[in-house]
Specification:
mainly alpha; DUF7966
């Protein structure tokens, strides 16, 4: 196995520190809009999450803020707040003893881990 290209490593570290987007060809507003539209469907939102798309929204918010695009930054932060609320609700729903949504059944403790 060969050593990684030092310039590529430096560029990756700069992006890590600065929050710079790797793919600058995709405008932040496109990243945010795609993630926002996925929130209308749980499966679509899960697909975005599986691809790391909500991390891309964080980077898009940073990029939008840097270029003074407050509307895109606000929309991106709203997407991230919604995703956070969905995750919290899902985590809360699956804890032991929670009354399920269907028929009032209790969630058995062995199904919550």
């Amino acid at each position: 196995m060969s050593d990684p290209d030092p310039e590529a490593v430096k560029a990756a570290l700069r992006r890590l520190v600065s929050g710079e987007r790797r793919n600058r060809d995709v405008p932040p507003e496109s990243t945010v809009a795609g993630a926002d539209s996925s929130l209308t469907n749980v499966r679509a939102a899960a697909d975005v999450a599986d691809r790391g798309g909500f991390a891309a929204v964080e980077a898009a918010v940073t990029a939008a803020e840097r270029r003074g695009d407050g509307a895109t930054a606000r929309r991106g932060r709203a997407v991230l707040r919604t995703v956070s609320a969905y995750r919290a609700a899902a985590a809360d729903h699956f804890h032991a003893g929670h009354v399920g949504l269907m028929g009032g059944e209790q969630v058995p403790s062995d199904e919550t881990s």
